[in-house]
């Protein structure tokens, strides 16, 4: 039973270290017992996800944490076993057990069945989340995002402006020389995509010239934009905020100059914004 105690001690130690790292990075707050984030954008030396803003992203984070639990146990279990074997049999005075053993039925069953069971435990929640993310519920509104070299165009096909035309605009990267104080370099745009919170939204994505990809980590979306093809995703942003993303498909020399900024506001503010267009 001595090896069991050593294994449990190793797993407990790594769990404590990971918890301390998360607290230090601002990922986990022991006072509120919830995940926190300083901003919904990439952070220097960030080691964890951005704060979730949609049910899809919450599911992805939960799936990641569940898989990480199994990975930590496997890592330290195999590592402890290797160190123990090396320590025991590196000494020439130690007897070599099972010198002429060619196979072991029990151990072969263990290392075959155990990984299979772990993969099954991982597969079921993974497929469940996959099909839930693929389902598009009855949306209250739609947004069309079109990728260009090298900017994004957005259109609200459910709303008209004062000229009885669809509300649409282009979104370009703000040059570093024009950034306001506190703005994020290579992430700020001149026109943000405004969306209401707590609303089922269908995001339709396409490309105008080459392959692009609309990705926003906090919302848990990454939608490829192919010319001549429409891809879609359904999101419901559950809190107000400003969420940053980038084009995630290499599309040319200025690929890094295609940021995405989505601003979630209350329904009242969204209606007021529509009336201003």
Automatic annotation (TrEMBL):
Reported cofactor(s): Cu cation
CDD domains: CcO_II_C
Known catalytic reactions: 4 Fe(II)-[cytochrome c] + O2 + 8 H(+)(in) = 4 Fe(III)-[cytochrome c] + 2 H2O + 4 H(+)(out)
PROSITE patterns (alphabetical): COX2_CUA, COX2_TM
Annotated family: Belongs to the cytochrome c oxidase subunit 2 family.
UniProt cross-references to PANTHER family, sorted A to Z: CYTOCHROME C OXIDASE SUBUNIT 2 (PTHR22888:SF9), CYTOCHROME C OXIDASE, SUBUNIT II (PTHR22888)
Protein name, per record: Cytochrome c oxidase subunit 2
Organism for this UniProt entry: Usnea mutabilis
Lineage, broadest ranks: Eukaryota, Fungi, Dikarya, Ascomycota, Pezizomycotina
């Amino acid at each position: 039973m001595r090896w069991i105690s050593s294994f449990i001690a190793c797993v407990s130690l790594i769990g404590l270290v990971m918890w301390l790292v998360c607290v230090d990075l601002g990922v986990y707050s022991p006072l509120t017992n919830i995940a926190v984030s300083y901003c919904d954008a990439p952070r220097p030396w960030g080691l964890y996800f951005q704060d979730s803003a949609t049910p899809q992203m919450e599911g992805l984070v939960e799936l990641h944490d569940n898989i990480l639990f199994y990975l930590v146990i496997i890592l330290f279990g195999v590592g402890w076993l290797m160190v123990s074997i090396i320590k025991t049999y590196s000494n020439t005075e130690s007897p070599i057990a099972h010198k002429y053993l060619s196979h072991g039925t029990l151990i072969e069953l263990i290392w075959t069945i155990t990984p299979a069971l772990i993969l099954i435990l991982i597969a079921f929640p993974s497929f469940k989340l996959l099909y839930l993310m693929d389902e598009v519920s009855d949306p209250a509104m739609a947004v069309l995002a079109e990728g260009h070299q090298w900017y994004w165009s957005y259109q609200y096909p459910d709303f008209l402006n004062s000229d009885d035309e669809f509300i649409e605009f282009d979104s370009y990267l703000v040059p570093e020389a024009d950034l306001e104080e506190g703005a994020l370099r290579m992430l700020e745009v001149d026109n943000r995509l405004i969306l209401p919170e707590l609303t089922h939204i269908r995001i339709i994505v396409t490309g105008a010239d080459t392959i692009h990809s609309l990705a926003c980590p906090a919302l848990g979306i990454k939608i490829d934009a192919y010319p001549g093809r429409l891809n879609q995703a359904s999101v419901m942003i559950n809190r107000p905020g400003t969420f940053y993303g980038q084009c995630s498909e290499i599309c040319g020399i200025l690929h890094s100059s295609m940021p995405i900024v989505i601003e979630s506001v209350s329904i009242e503010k969204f209606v007021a914004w529509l009336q201003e267009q």
